From TrEMBL:
It comes from Pedobacter nyackensis. The keyword Oxidoreductase applies. Homodimer. One of its GO terms (biological process) is removal of superoxide radicals. Keywords: FAD, Flavoprotein, Oxidoreductase, Redox-active center. Belongs to the class-II pyridine nucleotide-disulfide oxidoreductase family. Transmembrane segments: none annotated. InterPro entries: FAD/NAD-bd_sf (IPR036188), FAD/NAD-binding_dom (IPR023753), Ferredoxin-NADP_redctase_2 (IPR050097), Thioredox_Rdtase (IPR005982). NCBIfam families: TRX_reduct (TIGR01292). This is Thioredoxin reductase. Its cofactor is FAD. GO terms for cellular component: cytoplasm. Its EC number is 1.8.1.9.
Amino acid sequence: MSEELEHVQCLIIGSGPAGYTAAIYAARADLKPVMYTGMEPGGQLTQTTEVDNFPGYPTGITGPEMMEDFRKQAERFGTDIRFGYASSVDFSSLPHKVVIDDIKTITADTVIISTGATAKWLGLPSEGKYNGFGVSACAVCDGFFFKGQDVAIVGAGDTAAEEATYLAKLCKKVYMLVRRDEFRASKAMVHRVLNTPNIEVIYNTETKEILGNGKNVTGVRVVNNQTGAESDLDVEGFFVAIGHKPNTDIFKGQLDMDDTGYLKTVPGSTLTNVEGVFASGDVQDSYYRQAVTAAGSGCMAALDAERYLAAKEHDVKVVS
């Protein structure tokens, strides 16, 4: 069987806010973008219920609905949106080669990577059951819904400490569940947590079960990993802050990454270390991780790709 081959000007891998925004700008610039959505079209936001902090939606919107709006807008300008995932890449020469679903090879003059990052979870069945109904992996996104209520957060690093202090401004009480007898966070962040009156740190503690009434979270069952003693905490919200994993495995050895796997880009741009390859959204942003910042960097990636192609075309004309 002969291998399928196709050449495109602009290939977009991933379909969250970054990917769709890149598609809108690339399509309007007549780059005729082809997007492969990945196995979760719309990305992390499709797992979110209410989105209240994205500009332009004064009454809020659900994550899946918002991603559907993004998709329709990208299609309106001519983006070729396809379901499929990038299984391997070869960025060693131009044009770049990307294999889709292990069977089809796309060659591309430019590649925009918007594969995002995946929140790490504890792996409890109840965590999945109540995800979006009291369970969240983003305090900045969802903390507002728990104003004046009691919540718990699990984690011991800088992100967990930062999110706990953020929640403390909104919530009546924040239980911070730390697995060991100490934090992994920086001293400054630990100091901030310990000096916030409505944060109660519970050390040597692991989550056994998230409790609920079938609709929403009503509490969390914890176990002391030294004594084995179990206890229940009455909370309406449960936040998981044990880190994110960027979806960059297929780019290892091809693109520069930091120690945790996030793609490195030239500051103030979406340029990677490889000519014609750009990275936008959570795949290169371990700090903000918001839909609106991802969308902004998607715009940047499309503009960077457009300017790259224009410069290449100019160089060819000058040489000829």
